[in-house]
């Protein structure tokens, strides 16, 4: 049941500049009523950034934890308000409750207070004392600006189209990709610039051009690159080997030194071993799956971990062929990594960016 607001929250007009090789300046349109998240409920405008042991002391405290090495901010009652993992830019902040669902394809839904955001720098022990973090935290803790989850759901079936100032759609219902000549399987390797239909220049100077038949298409790794890279501005590699940042494919991401390996690939190739302990996962982690014997030792699929659904199962969102686009749906296998379902049985590793 929603809580009453304890104080009003003033929001600045937020502009997200997304600059591609075409010279287009993509501006996020925040006035779309359909894209708004629920109103904030209780937000601490100026948190107490003092160090502490995590004990219930009547004030917010910072605490160090292991496996993985991370820092958590606890509230006066000992509850976790935010988590920051060493060497990762991903931060999970507690905020207003939201519901994510896709009724056209599943009865499952996720009701969460987790807001996943990217910090400007990777976290290091003691960063809570640094000015860059204090400035960032003051701006985003309690903010209702689109986070990683909100962005991801802007590409599911029926998601409204959003256009930049040049009229280019940067969000809206995405497909996985066009059919292969056999009319059964779908073509892969559909990246974010294919969806956009504009050329893109990466940080290493490489410019890649879209293919007309892939317009509005995002394969599983292309979907993650759209959400984390083009929209949230995480650095992107042009391929798996050129440049720096998030690689092009699921296997490239899984094996990259980028971010932090939360669950490492284990067991004998090519199928490896299903993890026995997945309690270390945190909302926002990238999940990797081994699904196809034809790809040798490669990881074949990548997804975004959302946390627990309303039935207590660990749920994810990904772009897949069966549903033809981003989904939390059940077609081709329920979007869960616990139990004995299709994806649960093929889950292999996880990374925190």
TrEMBL record:
The cross-references to Pfam families, in alphabetical order and at most eight, read: NLPC_P60
Compositionally skewed regions (Polar residues) per UniProt = 50-60
Query: NlpC/P60 domain location, by residue?
Result: 182-353
Q: Which InterPro entries match?
A: NLP_P60_dom, Papain-like_cys_pep_sf
Region entry Disordered, spans: 38-61
- Work out whether the entry's keyword set contains Transport: no
**UniProtKB keywords:** Hydrolase, Protease, Thiol protease
| Superkingdom of origin organism | Bacteria
Q: Which family does it belong to?
A: Belongs to the peptidase C40 family.
Protein name, UniProt field: NlpC/P60 domain-containing protein
Query: Which species is this UniProt entry from?
Result: Streptomyces hygroscopicus
């Amino acid at each position: 049941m929603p809580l009453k607001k304890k104080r009003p929250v003033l929001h600045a007009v937020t502009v997200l500049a997304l600059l591609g090789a075409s010279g287009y300046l993509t501006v996020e349109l925040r006035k779309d009523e359909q894209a708004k998240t629920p109103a904030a409920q209780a937000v601490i405008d100026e948190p107490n950034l003092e160090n502490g042991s995590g004990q219930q002391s009547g004030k917010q405290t910072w605490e160090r934890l292991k496996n993985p090495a991370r820092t958590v901010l606890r509230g006066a009652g000992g509850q976790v308000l935010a988590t920051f993992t060493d060497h990762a830019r991903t931060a999970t902040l507690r905020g207003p409750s939201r519901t994510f669902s896709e009724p056209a394809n599943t009865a499952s839904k996720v009701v969460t207070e987790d807001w996943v955001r990217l910090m400007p720098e990777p976290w290091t022990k003691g960063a809570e004392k640094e000015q860059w973090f204090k400035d960032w935290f003051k701006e985003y803790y309690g903010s209702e600006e689109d986070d990683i989850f909100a962005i991801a759901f802007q590409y599911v079936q029926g998601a409204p189209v959003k256009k930049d100032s040049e009229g280019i759609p940067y969000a809206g219902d995405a497909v996985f990709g066009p059919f292969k000549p056999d009319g059964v399987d779908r073509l892969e390797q559909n990246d974010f610039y294919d969806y956009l239909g504009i050329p893109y220049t990466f940080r290493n100077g490489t410019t890649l051009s879209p293919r007309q038949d892939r317009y509005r298409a995002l394969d599983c790794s292309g979907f993650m690159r759209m959400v984390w890279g083009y929209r949230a501005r995480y650095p992107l590699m042009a391929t798996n080997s050129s440049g720096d940042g998030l690689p092009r494919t699921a296997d490239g991401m899984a094996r990259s030194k980028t971010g932090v390996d939360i669950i490492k690939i284990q067991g004998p190739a090519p199928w490896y071993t299903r993890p026995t302990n997945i309690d270390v996962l945190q909302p926002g982690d990238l999940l990797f799956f081994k699904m196809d014997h034809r790809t040798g030792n490669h990881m074949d699929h990548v997804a975004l971990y959302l946390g627990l659904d309303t039935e207590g199962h660990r749920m994810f969102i990904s772009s897949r062929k069966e549903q033809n686009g981003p989904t939390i749906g059940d077609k081709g296998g329920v979007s869960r990594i616990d139990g004995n379902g299709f994806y649960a049985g093929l889950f292999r590793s996880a990374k925190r960016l």
